[in-house]
Specification:
With 196 residues, this protein is of the alpha/beta class. It has a single domain, classed as 3-Layer(aba) Sandwich (Rossmann fold), CATH 3.40.50.150. Helix content is 28%, strand content 33%. Strands 5-4-3-6-7-9-8 form a seven-stranded mixed β-sheet, with helices on both faces. A two-stranded antiparallel ribbon has the order 1-2. Strand 4, helix 3 and strand 5 form a beta-alpha-beta unit. Helix 1 packs parallel to helix 2. The longest helix is centred in the middle third of the chain and has 14 residues. The N and C termini lie far apart (39 Å).
Length: 196
């Protein structure tokens, strides 16, 4: 079974358009087969983004880890004026993000990276709707290793569903971070992690 975090060069293309509005700002995203939540904005991503925007109105240096077609990073850049970098292991997702950056007229960088493999800088915020299907070891690696790429007062924001092991993931992360549950909705929990 193909997953959105693998690269399948044989996969055909069926571009579709997805609309989203944040307050009075409208966005149009291009999506395709082989990327996460290809037909609609994923509820967890939307919930994470909107929780973040309610708290963060000032510009920051932000990394959107596992960006998919760029939804979270592009909206953050447009709404807050933040300096945003998007990365994904999926080449098609990165290509779609490039299209969506141009379409949304935002100054966002995007490149292929397997988690932090190609990351060379540090950020004020790392935000992620992590790929649960990669398994718990890889998932925890993404969330724990964020510390190495955050500035001194940096924060990691992430969303996880209760039935996907939110409690056990948070318990593990509490060894490394102070974790705050920002909000919960429809079984999704949004967390902010600061250095312990």
């Amino acid at each position: 079974m193909e997953h959105y975090f693998t690269n399948n060069e044989e996969l055909k293309s069926e571009i579709r358009k997805i609309e989203y509005s944040y307050k009075s700002t409208s966005f149009l995203f291009y999506s395709d087969l082989g990327v996460f939540s290809k037909d609609r904005i994923d509820y967890g991503s939307k919930f994470l983004l909107e929780c973040y925007l309610e708290e963060k109105e000032s510009a920051k240096k932000v990394l959107d880890m596992g960006c998919g077609y760029g939804f979270i990073g592009i909206v953050i850049s447009k709404i807050t004026g933040s300096n945003v970098t998007c990365v994904d292991v999926n080449k098609r997702a990165v290509h779609l993000t490039e299209m969506n950056i141009k379409n949304s007229c935002v100054n966002v960088k995007v490149f292929v990276s397997d988690a932090y493999e190609n990351i060379k800088e540090k950020y004020d915020v790392i935000i992620t709707n992590p790929p649960i299907r990669v398994g718990k070891v890889k998932l925890l690696d993404i969330l724990i290793k964020a510390r190495e790429y955050l500035n001194k007062d940096g924060e990691m924001w992430f969303v996880i569903r209760k039935d996907q092991g939110a409690k056990s993931v948070v318990k593990e992360l509490e060894k490394y971070y102070m974790i705050e549950n920002i909000d919960k909705s429809k079984g999704f929990y949004v967390y902010k992690a600061n250095f312990n």
